[in-house]
Amino acid sequence: MLILPFVMIFYAQPELLSEWVSFVHDPEQESGFNYLHFGAATGVLFSLIVQIGEQVDYLRFLPDKTEENRVSWWTAMISAGPGWILIGGLKILAGSFLAVLAVRAGVSYVDAVEPIHMYIEAYQYVSDDPWIVLTAATVFVIISQVKINVTNAYAGSLAWSNFYSRVTHYHPGRVVWLVFNILISLLLMLLGIFETLQFVLTVYSNVAIAWIGAIFADLVVLKPMKISPSFIEFKRAHLYNINPVGCGAMLIASTISVTAFSGVFGEVAQAYSAIISLVTAFTAAIAIGMATKGKYYIAREDTFADRVRGQETIGCGVCDYNYEPQDMAYCPYYEGPICSLCCSLDAHCHDICKHPFIEHHEGLPIVGDRSFRRRIPPDLTQRLAKFLGVFLALAVVTAAVFLLAYRMIDLDQMIEQTDNARLLFRIYSATLVLICIGAWWIVLAHESRELAERELVTSLEILNETRNELMQSEQLATIGQVTATVSHELRNPLGTISSSASVLSRYLENSDPEVREELDRMQRNIRRCVHIIEDLLDFSRYREMVVSPVLMDELIRSLLEEQRLPAAVSLKTALNSEATVLVDNEKFRQVFVNVIQNANQAMMQSDDPDSAYGELAVATRVVKNRFELSVSDQGAGIPLDAREKIFKPLFSTKAFGIGLGMPLVKRIVEQHNGGVDIASEWGKGTTVTIWLPLAER
């Protein structure tokens, strides 16, 4: 139904092709190339480029690229993405041809651009029966419009959903936005938006092509220059709210191009405003990217992806649904994996994942006159920025509505155009006052909601911490009671057994290897039992810290000399921090010994401690005014489900031990106002990083 009319037209009257090429809208105008009309047409066409975004959305259904499907994968990607321009260009040319055909048949210029009039004239070359012509044209236009409306409704609901879920942290469902998008389209149709379609598309193209220009600059210039990351990150957990490269370039280009389109810079700039927008956005994005050195692309590195590599799906800790690892991030607020949608909708965390080591303080920094500062409300700068943002957004939307209304006014012959413009401008100026009040009310209401949420979240956090402290106190009390009994009841028998085993070892020194092996195994298990009792005692007793300035590299070097490493374990050190930290030597020794023992046990090939094999790396450094000690092993790694429980008392992944080593490490380090991070990859090893604040000089 699409191609048949063109075949019949070119078969019956092939000369129509030359008439179409030489068509001139105004017969009195000289034929030939008109650069002003070309620029204006470019602006309309640029508005259609954004539809590539709809096509690209379908590309997420492509399978992963492999060596076997590399050619077909690239073919599908290019065809369905940028290749849409070829299909879109052919459709535009075909539409203009049918419009010229309709004008040639006597249809007015206003009606000639309507699809039904185009295809009524086209189908007359297919059949001489008016009923068949009208039916075929109607069916084809209805099918085409249904396809267009369904696609646009899908894309529009997706855009509304993404925008509002990110701004309001609320997602009522795609169906709500689908209905909302359809209602807006019906409203615009009733207002007669299609009568000013060229004007609307041209203004829209200035903004849309600015977006394309910024993206193009990022892909072809900033990424090869390594200013922007080589990958495309889309998860809120790893992005800044605003990246000045894209947002700044788009804002600058849109402002300049819309100003040019209004005629301020002359008729040439008005005709080529879309091209001005493209060039400005491209240049501005590169300039801003180089000026900021790309530091606003990624808010925090994605270490979670390495930890879950190889897993097909991961459960979200908020909604409990399973998603692919690419759609997941680690949330320190919920202390677990979170999906992209839950991350976008969450309004409680306030992006703490992007500022893990920054303490947030209410109020402004004290600079200058303190008495004057105390009179300024807290977060005044942020509040004014929000107000200006909301005010400008509402003002621009209202201005667009008034401008559209002005373009659709049927001017009376007795009223001059300037009177209408002056009237609308006065009404708009009066509306700005209401917009100002509304914007301020929105900001204050938003702040009130945020304040209530923060107070609620703070209360819940305090309650949760109190509950955890109570549970921990109960556990410590239980462990203390058990320890008192165990240490009294077991130490004496274990001492007797150990002495007897030592006597037997001396008397049976020349006995069979099997006997010697059993005696060695007996002594190893005796030492393990003693070690468990010592762990229980260390964990249950509380001793005040006695801190003093310590050169950490020297302390760690001396502690390493005390450790007996298996023969097959090679030690690699990089103690280069030269840091001084306030620590309790004895408590830090407990921390270090526990971590080293865990690393050795992770590399054990059997039940024998001397069976450990691999490289043990110990390194120190200073990062962001804090001391970091990292201990890496080449053991089996820690399973993902065990990483969240590794600091819980009495939890252990080993066949021996009772799971108090790492909880003791965490408790002692936190007493020093520090922290413990664990990075592990299954089958490759584990790195334990301990960080402590530097001593003030």
Description:
With 697 residues, the chain is α+β, with helices and mostly antiparallel strands. Among the domains are: 126 residues, no CATH class; 53 residues, no CATH class; 87 residues, no CATH class; 57 residues, no CATH class; 146 residues, 2-Layer Sandwich (Heat Shock Protein 90). It is 59% helix and 9% strand. It contains 24 helices and 11 strands. The strands form 4 sheets. Strands 6-8-9-11-10 form a 5-stranded mixed sheet, with helices on one face. A two-stranded antiparallel ribbon has the order 1-2. The longest helix has 91 residues.
How much strand? 5-15%
Helix content: 55-70%
The tally of helices reads 24
Strands of the largest sheet, in order across it?
6-8-9-11-10
Low-confidence regions: 357-378, 410-415
Please report the first level of CATH classification, the CATH class of the domain at 548-693.
Answer: Alpha Beta
Q: Tell me the distance between the termini.
A: 83 Å
Question: Shape from CA axes?
Answer: elongated
The CATH topology of the domain at 548-693 comes to Heat Shock Protein 90
The CATH architecture of the domain at 548-693 can be given as 2-Layer Sandwich
Q: Residue-averaged pLDDT, rounded?
A: 76
Largest sheet: 5 strands, mixed
- The total beta strand count reads 11
Radius of gyration: 36 Å
Structural class: alpha+beta
Full CATH superfamily name of the domain at 548-693: Histidine kinase-like ATPase, C-terminal domain
